[in-house]
Specification:
This protein has 21 helices and ten strands. α9 packs antiparallel against α10 and α14 crosses α16. About 12% of the residues have low confidence.
Length: 472
């Protein structure tokens, strides 16, 4: 026989009200996303309006671009080494596929027209007075040039692309290619790094000191240049030290990615949520007034709402919830930002090397909020400081044990590593082991493998690859 048993269980359960759901959703939005969300609500809800009575919500002035955002979140070091610029000169293939960095671009190649490399080349092609067949060949060649300015496809593939409309020989394609290789920017349409350098050298004045030696060296002794064996180069080229120095200077001045000046990134703007300013001996944190929508309930429509107008009553409730949710969002942002600034005062005063360890849990405990809430607040929110624009998450880092038993921020360790490498000798770069020793001397006990991990995260090559190849 079965018995019915009545049991009473006690427990806590959070009910996600619509207002709480909205507050959480707004907390996750960036400043620009919040502006867009408010704009959409203004268009649909007659009970809501801007505080100044205007009809249009304008985005605040953009302060930083995506490039600055990436630099702030993950600082990198630029190592001006010939080996970095020409590291793929050992082989003839793969030169066009190398994922070059925007940091390598030289300012004199900057293009302000806003056009693409292909558009720039097509304009020159149309002015070259070629036959209809050569124009067709030229268009196919230009379509096969990548953003760095290299021709990706072999001539046989280009011939296949032209068929069956045109039956052309490899000699005809080669002739048009030679014409395009005379176009601006110098070095464009090369198939290898060596050819790219030679094309640029060929456009110099024939009387340039060291030019003939440079061309011969690039054509026949590129591996020796990459190896940095200047004595062997002098013997092979049968030139004086001064002649070799002039030749290497010309090679070093060549650009490895002639098409890079035409790269265009899509606009990805960042608007700071808070602004940090020095006030006397301390730091003040304020909301960015331009990023915060100032809303109010429509004073003319609100008194007209009665029980007979359920739709308007719902809109009125929505308007009040939105205003309150934005206020809650702003209050939470300020609390978190002020806690971060209080913990990272040394960073604001001295820079990256003074960053202290900080994790989400510590901020959550300080502001008496759940860790998941702090995670939402610190994602996609930005702080404008005298040291630049930083995502809130930039100020959080893991702990690394110091020699005196205290803890050091991993961000500070990265900054110290970056500084040591920036000041190293080009002929004798610091190994990971040596960097670990220097950090220990400075009070931060870090294992060699930790140094290697942080170095790789900053996209800094190992010491064997940082050694200057072409000399100075």
């Amino acid at each position: 026989m079965l018995k019915s048993v009545l049991q009473l269980k006690l427990g806590q359960r959070h009910a996600m009200t619509p207002q709480l759901q909205q507050a959480i959703r707004l907390l996750q939005l960036s400043a620009i996303e919040l502006q867009q969300s408010v704009r959409e609500t203004l268009a649909e809800n007659v009970m809501l309006e801007l505080e100044d009575g205007g009809d249009e919500l304008e985005l605040p002035t953009v302060t930083e671009t995506a490039a600055v955002k990436e630099a702030a979140v993950q600082p990198e070091i630029e190592i001006d080494s010939a080996e970095d610029r020409w590291s793929d000169t050992h082989g003839e293939s793969g030169a066009a596929d190398r994922p070059w960095s925007e940091d390598d671009r030289l300012p004199e190649f900057a293009d302000e027209t806003g056009g693409s490399l292909q558009e720039h080349l097509l304009e020159q092609l149309l002015l070259a007075r070629l036959s209809p067949l050569d124009l067709a060949i030229g268009r196919v060649i230009i379509d096969s040039i990548n953003d760095d300015g290299y021709l990706l496809e072999p001539l046989e593939t280009l011939a296949e692309i032209l068929r069956p409309a045109f039956e052309v020989s490899l000699t005809q394609i080669e002739a048009v290619l030679r014409t395009i290789q005379l176009f601006d920017p110098a070095g464009v349409a090369a198939r290898t790094v060596g050819e790219c350098i030679e094309l640029q050298l060929a456009q110099l004045d024939p009387r340039t000191p060291g030019l003939l030696t440079a061309i011969e060296a690039v054509r026949d002794y590129l591996p020796a240049i990459a190896a940095g064996d200047h004595s062997a180069l002098r013997r092979q080229l049968a030139v004086t030290a001064d002649e070799l120095a002039n030749a290497l200077a010309l090679i070093r001045a060549s650009h490895p990615r002639p098409g890079s000046a035409f790269h265009r990134r899509p606009s990805d703007y960042v608007v700071p949520d808070v602004v940090v300013r020095r006030r006397g001996a301390s730091w003040a944190v304020e909301l960015n007034s331009g990023a915060v929508p100032k809303l109010r309930v429509n004073p003319e429509y609100a008194p007209l709402v009665t029980a007979d107008h359920p739709a308007m009553r719902a809109q009125l409730q929505e308007a009040r919830w939105l205003i309150k949710s934005i206020d809650m969002r702003n209050e939470t942002l300020l609390k978190v930002a002020r806690t971060i600034v209080n913990r990272q005062t040394a960073f604001l005063d001295q820079g990256e090397e003074a960053m202290v360890p900080l994790v989400l849990r510590e901020v959550a405990e300080t502001v008496e909020m759940h860790e998941s809430t702090i995670s939402r607040v610190t994602t996609g929110k930005y702080m404008l400081t005298p040291r630049g624009m930083f995502e809130f998450r930039h100020f959080f880092s893991s702990h690394v044990a110091a020699a005196d038993g205290t803890e050091v921020s991993s961000t500070a360790i990265r900054a110290k590593i970056k500084k040591l490498i920036a000041g190293e000798s080009a002929d004798n770069p610091l190994s990971d082991s040596r960097i670990a020793e220097l950090l220990a001397t400075d009070g931060a006990k870090v294992a060699r493998r930790t140094v290697a991990k942080y170095r790789e995260a900053m996209k800094i090559a190992p010491s064997s690859e940082r050694r200057t190849v072409l000399g100075r």
